Sequence to fold (288 residues):
Amino acid sequence: MDRLELAEFLRVRREALQPEDVGLRRGPRRRARGLRREEVAELSGMSTDYYARLERGKSPQPSEQMAAAISRGLRLSLAERDHLFLLAGHGTPRRALRSDHVSPGLMRILDRLQDTPAQIMGSLGETIVQTPPAVALLGKQTQYTGLARSNVYRWFADPSSRQIYPAADHAANGRVFTAQLRRVATQQGPHGPAAALARRLLDESEEFAAIWNDHQVGLTFTNEKRLVHPEVGQLTLHCQILLDPDQEHSLLSFTATPGTESYDKLQLLAVIGNQQLSSGLADRSETS
Fold:
């Protein structure tokens, strides 16, 4: 690990980013050149103290997961991400971490959707990053590890994951999830991660096996989604999808028709999400 070179690289990349580049407000009294350290730490999901020590060249070696998080937080390109990994003493990122790296262009779009429920997902339904309104609407989906990162695995292995959908939609959703997994498994081949996930689910879920053996293909979700939230009840939302075929990522955004009950509920969720975020920040400041 080259601590001094890593520290300099992080500082230069941080100072090259402006608040507007990552969906933040500049504010009238801002004096910092580029982003502040605490802002990069927040974007990367780590403590300010840890990130500051990295920039001072006084931190222990960051893990591969931490290096990947910093790469996303600093909106690095693929080449810059690989450079950061090498400076941190790691080789080329493992496949799981490579697939988690979101292109700067897609991240810039997400940064401008901070007042909208939106999230970026991988080819197996892994939620990589969410806006605060998406967390308020769907719950935090980025904390899972292993097979549970995949929404299709959770759908069949953890029935509680279905609670955000009306019970009447469960059967159809299960068929769509299965058809989507079959499409990815066919694209990746029999030795790819999607096929491995399918084999695991065949062993664990009779429901999945029955659907899988029907060999249904081409099923997709409609643009209109019905969701159930524990605090505001059922919402009918429009889901728009932007694909990044190079990285096999998709950006999902959820909106409601103005003037409808679902629109009012979505506005209320935005307030609830902001209150939860403010409360979390207050709790952290009290313990820091």
Remarks:
- Residues 277-288 have pLDDT under 50 and may be disordered.
- The domain at 106-279 is CATH 3.30.450.180 (Beta-Lactamase).
